[in-house]
Amino acid sequence: MNGDFLKRAQSRFESLEGSLNSLDAAIGDGDHGSTILKGLRAAAASPEDAAKAFRVAAGGASGALFGQIIAALDAFDKGDMELGPALARAAGRVTQLGQAKAGDKTMLDALMPASLAGNEPAAAAHAARAGAEATRDMPAKRGRAKYVEGAGVGHLDPGAVSVAELLEEFAKPSGA
Fold first, then answer.
1. 120, 83 Cβ separation under 8 angstroms
2. Which Pfam families does the protein's record reference (predicted)?
3. Cα(160)–Cα(105) distance, integer angstroms
């Protein structure tokens, strides 16, 4: 995988760690930013098998679910798949593994629109951002957020925000 992208993503998530943890603290356990950053550090150190390195380092559900996105971006980066189908495959795996669907206030609310946006990384990133913003008004139907008063309405889903941030970094040209 493109090591430049992974290093940029690591740097971006180092600056986002606190804000993502705060988003997660409002509706979850407060460690989402730290978990994603741990996975990205490992992926950046192992660009040849970035998805596996991410899964192992991040661990738990986030490792397995976000590892699917890293694998999709790797498949696109290597020319093995177009971006839309690669992200659709990742969304399918996330749906299966997480037993969630669009509208449940999860990372899928950013990933699914990105998969339908075509094959241009910038279009996927834009769709993911819009999807992440839409989670603010959704009641959570999965995860810890569904037990929060009001099911987390008024809060962004940190997983959806991370998907948008990751795809925005991916859309930047190398060396940016």
1. yes
2. Dak2 (PF02734)
3. 8
